[in-house]
Every structure is written in structure tokens, then in C-alpha cells.
Amino acid sequence: MPDTFFTKSPHWGWWAVTEFFIAGIAGAAAAIAALLWLVGNRNDRFVARYGFAIATVGSALSGLLLTFDLKRPERFWHMLLFSKTLGPTFQKWWAPMADGAWALFLLGSFSFLILVGSLAEGGRLPSGLAFLAGGPLGAVLAALAGIAGLFYAGYKGVLLSATNRPLWGDTPWLGILLLASGFAMASALLLLLIRDRAPAVSQWLRQLLIGSLALTLLVVVILVATLDADVRRLVLQNVYGVVLLVAVLVGALVPLALAWRPQLLGRSTLPSAAVLVLVGGFLLRIAMLLSSEAA
Amino acid sequence: MAEPMGFFTDTSVCIGCKACEVACKAWNQLPARNGGKVTLSGESYDNTRALSGIQWRHVKFIEQFSPDRSTGRWLMMSDVCKHCVQAACLEVCPTGAIIRTEFDTVVIQSDVCNGCRACIAACPFGVIEINPETNTAMKCTLCYDRLQAGMVPACAQACPTQSIQFGPISELRQRAQARLEQLQAQGVTQARLYGHDESILGGLNSFYLLLDEPEVYGLPSNPQLPSQKAAPASALSTAGAVALGLLGLVGLRKQRMDKLAAEERDRRQQASETGE
Fold first, then answer.
1. ipTM (interface pTM)
2. Residue A103 sits in a domain of what CATH number?
């Protein structure tokens, strides 16, 4: 029997699945928004604003879900500061969860600041706050939010790999898998939100969706193919294997085909693909997390 | 730092009396019930099943019988936290709740732990669980309080057969080697030491003399540190981030170039129309 089967489950259940889903979207949305903010057309910045809004709300929700999932939620701040010295926990950089907690904090903070600045620029908040989005400060904030988002979207899978649990500790491919899936979900959500209001950005998001779905599929195949045969049998030859199969078919292959041929179902093609990607992303996280929990 | 201290557990003389379990529970005031629930197995002499947040010592009863049950044996092993020299739980704990003591043992500070459970997923031996009374992760402390007072851990003191031996690691290793040689000379060729040297996580400060393969006792043959797995996962994740970032950048750049080309076309067309 593989060594990972001598371990105990941490009972990261539905709270964790939901948090992983939201975290993937939030992190990737910040990264996409940062790209648009820094390199895209200035007229399309409202799409970047959507991205930072998703990242801000998603970070807050992630933080709440993570806190609720602690056995001692009132000690949530121990994730950020050592309770005895009040030093930042990122001093222990080799502990993935300490890095993740800080990445989430920074992702939420930077996304919130650039969002406030952007809303002020658009006249929805007092104009005195527009300095947050303007000039070099706005660029720096956007870049930092994007970097934190990229880190956080991939970190969730690395966190799983840095365990000794079945499946999680048996493959190094979970980080890139959840990152690619997060990008696909964030692209899909942004496509749903902007609809026809920015055709050029929609086209770009569609390309990003195709790229991230293709990467997701490639990584799933490699992950499953390179797994130890015993691990594959014990962890995936059950209901979670079926869930993974459905996630791949419905959440990646079908939307990839739809995104490739955006006129296939008329105007509803891309929205349909986007909804399927979001459903598939959730199913993928169910399969990856709960299959190990059940082993 | 004081001399590294630990346990050498000689499973060949364990009689499964569970005195160590009782002594551990009594000294550490651990509850009998898990969150109010009775969790005794009721189907084996191994009634306490496994290590947990309220069960810091557990005597395993490994029943090896032939299919017709005409021959068989029980292997018994008093299991406990291994107090690894390179401890996975200590490595991943984000709050600093898990510390290494002056005795080179590994202890969870209950007043710091917030119950994130990263240590549970990281421990390659399945030692740690949540204690339902404190809602924090708990495991054997190697009786840190008793050690500080110059006392022997409760389990080792209670063991009637000296299956659990406590002392300085260097001394325990010599004792273990001598006992192994004695058993092998008696024809017990399956006898082996587990965790006595640096090959397993830099050495286990609670190591064992076993009478069969480690897996038979529920012990991993090649346990690993989480950091060994995090590095390749991080590298792949970074590669994915670079690939997707480049895809986005190239797409935006292409759009900008297309737009500039279209503007240039319009400008030339306007210029030619003006020229006419």
C-alpha cells in the first residue's frame, strides 16, 4: 500500500471545497484584471474593475470560509501573526499555509484598493480616492494584486501536494491544475458579466478560456496517467472518479468545443460554455478534495 | 539544549496490556469519550482502535492468522508520536503552535493552535487529530512536563515488560542494536529496527524494534517531508502561471497591434481620399 495511506484525514470537507472554488476564481480574476489594467486598452478598464471586484469579494468570502473551517475560529489571526511574538507568520515561509494566509490578505487588500480607486475614477466614489488608481500607484497596486492572485490561485493545489495524504501527496500536478482551472473559471465569469459590452475583451477572454481549458485538460490527463496505480485504484475508482470524469467532460471538453466554435449555439454559445466551466470547476474541486478525504 | 531524549519500543516483548494507554490518559487527563461518543471498537482486544486527539498512546493488535485459522500470531505494538528529527507537522504548522523542545521532542502548544489541521494532513504516521474538548490538534508530548521535572514519561514508567524504554537517544540506539543482534542470533530473522537511524526523516526519537515489515504495523516504509513535495508542485504551478500570463500578454499585444494597423489603414484611406 502507498505510504500516503497510513495517514489521517484532516477533514477538509465542503467548506474547503467551496473555499477552493472561490479562491480559484478570485485569484485568477485579479491576475486577469491586472493584465487588462496594465497592458489593455484604457477604454476596457471597466472589465478590469469587474475582475478586481470579484477578487475583493472572493477574498473576503475565502477568508470567512477559512475562518469558519478552523476548529478555533476566534484564533484566525494566528494565521497572520504569531500569537506569542506578534511577528508575521510569513517569517516561516516554508509553511505553505502561512504563505497562503498572507497571499489572501494581500490579494484582498490590493484588489480592494485598486477597486476603490477605479470606482472613484468612474465617479462612483469620492474623487479624492481616485489617486489609488491613477498613475504609478495604480499600476503598482494592480501588479501586486495580480501577483498575489496568481500565487493564491496556484497555492491551493501546492498546499494539497505538501501533505502526506492519498492523491494530494502523491502528485505534484495539483497546483498547476487548480491554477489553470481557476483561470478558466475567472475568464468564464468575466465573460458572463461583460456580455457584449466589450467585444475586443470578450474575444481576448475567449482565447484565455480556450488556453486555460486546454491546459486543464492536459494536466488532468498527466495527473491521472502518472499516479501510482494503487493510488488511482483506491482514490479514483469510485464515485469521485465519476465526478472527475463529469468535470472533465462537462466542465472542460464541452466548453472548449463551444469556445472554439462560438457560433455553434448562436448568442448563447459563450454564456453556456461559461456556466459549464464554473460547474466543472466546482466538480473538479469536489473530486480532488473529497476523494482523498474518503480514502 | 539538553540531550535528545526519546523512546525505544521493543515490540517483541509487548504483551498488549495497555497499561501505557491508561497511564497516558491518567497523567494527561485525557477523556475516555471522544466528544461524548463512545468509540471503543467492541470487536477486538484492540478496543481503542487508533491514535487520536484523546488517545496519545495506542497498543496495536495485529492479528495474523492463516485462512483456516489453524496457525496464527498476534503482533503487538505500543504506537505513539515519533517525535521526528525532521518533523512534518512542525514544518507545515502556520501558527508556530508546534515547537521543538530542549529535549529534541515535538510538542503542540494548545494555547496557540487554531485547529487548521495542516499538521494532521502532513504527519506521515497518522498520529495527530483534533481533541474535541479543546478543539485543537493534540498528540503525545513525550510528557514534556514530567521531563522538565526530571521524571520518566508516564507510559514508560507504567510498562511492565520494558517494551517502552525511555532515555537518551544515543543510549537507546545501543540498547536497540544489542537487542536486535540477540533476537537474530535466536533465529528471529524478521526482526528489524525502524527509525533508529537518519534514513527515516532524519531519525525518529521514538523508534521501534519490529518483527515484520513496517507496513504490517501500519508504518510507512519511506515517509516524506511536505517540503520535498512542495518544491516540484510550486515549480509546475509557476510554469503554469508564466504560460497563462504570456498567453494573456500575447493576446492583448496582438489586439493592440491589430487596432494600430486598423487605425493606420483608416488614416491612409482618409489621406488618399483627401488627395483625390
1. 0.95
2. 1.20.1630.10
